[in-house]
Amino acid sequence: MKALLQRVSHASVCVDNSIVGEIGPGILVLVAIEQADTEKTVQRMAEKISKYRMFSDTDGKMNLSVAQTGGEVLVVSQFTLAADTNKGLRPSFSRGAAPSVSETLYLQLAENIASQGINVATGRFGADMKVSLLNDGPVTFMLDM
Q: What does the record list as coiled-coil region(s) (predicted)?
């Protein structure tokens, strides 16, 4: 599982010109599910996302998590993060999990983050989405499990 975390002032995702998910300050998570991922992978990633210290404390140091700041999380499926780009000029998506597995684990990730008391919004799995965000910092981290 790969998750690209971006600290945002706000973010939203639209499908067919309608907003399907929207947050204020928090984290935009672009996530790719890979073949080896399981429910255990999802649980570990959800815990890491909710506890990852990427927000500034009163001294300006990144010591606070989204849970500690009361921020929100927008989870958006992005299978292209699973691409193998090592050879040639066309990405290979052979590492990605099957769509039915990916959708289940993607939704479980959002649920697991929400179960930790964090407000979570999502995109729409498999849809052509338009993601808007105001990156705060910018602060961006790639998590790989």
A: none
Measure the CA dihedral 80/11/20/118, to 10°.
Answer: 100
Min mean pLDDT across 31-40, 71-80, 84-93 is at: 84-93
Give the global pTM. Answer: 0.94
Distance CA 143, CA 69 (A): 20
Average pLDDT estimate for 73-100:
90
User: Residues with Cβ < 8 Å from 12, sequence gap 6 or more?
Assistant: 19, 21, 22, 23, 74, 131, 132, 133
Domains parsed from the chain with CATH numbers: 2-131 (3.50.80.10)
CA distance 49 to 30: 11
Token representation of residue 34:
């890979």
Q: What residues act catalytically? A: 78-80
Which of the 8 DSSP states describes residue 115? T
> Using an 8 Å Cβ cutoff, are 3 and 130 in contact?
no
Considering the chain, what is the average pLDDT of its residues? Answer: 95
Q: How far apart, in whole angstroms, are the C-alpha atoms of residue 54 and residue 63?
A: 7
